[in-house]
UniProtKB/TrEMBL annotation:
One Pfam family named in its UniProt record: adh_short_C2
Keyword ATP-binding among record annotations: no
Family statement drawn from the similarity comment of this UniProt entry: Belongs to the short-chain dehydrogenases/reductases (SDR) family.
Species annotation: Actinorhabdospora filicis
Keyword set, alphabetical order: Oxidoreductase
InterPro entries: NAD(P)-bd_dom_sf, SDR_fam
Gene3D superfamilies (UniProt xref): NAD(P)-binding Rossmann-like Domain
One Gene Ontology molecular-function label: oxidoreductase activity
Tagged with keyword Oxidoreductase: yes
Protein name per its UniProtKB record: 3-oxoacyl-ACP reductase
Length: 266
């Protein structure tokens, strides 16, 4: 059990990626604390975990409410004895496809502000409960947009690149305390829309513009643009997160793991 005795906080734990990672963390022995705005979806993931013998607790927390996030982290640390692992898997709906002339400043800033603000608030809340005599791990999620030069991705790409920069710099800051910070960059996740992800709605206009359903769009245009001609699946992201959170990855920090199937060359 590589995560035995570890306490993991997952923001967006009722979502497609957050839920999948929570199940894998619990499978590997972690006690998971799921945070999000909708208690029903969090409880559904927790019920599945406990039904399989795992330990999961849920809390209604809005990641943009820094006081609430701080109070939740404080409560988790007090109850469980510390925080060892944290993942921010919160989604921020945003535009993809609109170029500069048609893009408003508000729409451009929406993913930049939303993703960065939530990453800052959650990282700050957990970091002070990590490290010292027990090493900590903060995992982040980005997108291939961090590296893509394609029209219509100004806000998305800027936010993705900023999340990766945040990951690297925070890793340098927290390394002396024994905390690793590692990013995971999936491509569009093949089975996420079917699991209720916001990406179903995000990709719908682009799919419709090509006369395709969302699954056809993912299978065709997006998977076709990767070296392996396939997109990552939720279980593959969760396996990588569980590996990176474990001591088996104890020398890995300040980097981004590219799970895109080779959408880009680093
Ligand atoms: N899915 C993909 O294809 C993909 C690819 C690359 C990277 N990613 C990254 O992974 C993240 C998660 O993706 P996903 O597919 O798992 O999204 P998702 O299924 O839509 O899940 C996101 C979760 O975030 C929660 N959330 C949203 N706003 C929140 C807030 N203010 N406070 C607390 N929780 C909030 C949502 O629950 P409530 O609304 O109930 O709070 C939801 O459970 C994305 O945002 C992105 O950064 C995803």
């Amino acid at each position: 059990m590589p995560l035995e005795g570890k306490n993991a906080v997952i923001y967006g734990g009722g979502g497609a990626i957050g839920g999948a990672v929570a199940r894998h963390f619990a499978r590997d022995g972690a006690r998971v604390f799921l945070a999000g705005r909708t208690i029903a979806t969090l409880d559904a993931v927790a019920a599945e975990i406990t039904a399989h013998g795992g330990r999961a607790e849920t809390a209604r927390v809005d990641v943009f409410d820094s006081d609430a996030v701080e109070a939740h982290a404080e409560a988790v640390a007090a109850t469980a004895g510390g925080i060892d692992i944290a993942l921010n898997a919160v989604s921020v709906m945003h535009d993809q496809g609109t170029t500069l002339a048609g893009l408003s400043i508000a729409e451009f800033m929406r993913p930049v502000d939303g993703f960065l603000r939530s990453l800052f608030i959650t990282s700050k809340a957990v970091a002070r409960h990590m490290g010292g005599d027990r090493p900590g791990v903060i995992l982040t999620l980005s997108e291939p947009g961090a590296k893509l030069a394609m029209p219509g991705l100004l806000g998305h790409a800027a936010s993705a690149a900023a999340k990766e920069a945040f990951t690297r710099v925070l890793a340098a800051e927290l390394a002396p305390a024994g905390v690793r910070v590692v990013g995971i960059r999936p491509h569009a996740v093949a089975d996420a829309p079917a699991a209720g992800s916001y990406t179903g709605e995000l990709f719908a206009p682009m799919a419709a513009a090509s006369g395709l359903s969302v699954p056809e769009f993912l299978d065709g245009a997006l998977a076709g643009g990767t070296m392996l001609k396939r997109l990552p699946e939720l279980a593959e992201i969760a396996e990588m997160a569980a590996f990176l959170a474990s001591g088996r990855a104890r020398n890995v920090t300040g980097t981004i793991v590219n799970l895109s199937g080779g959408a880009l060359v680093d």
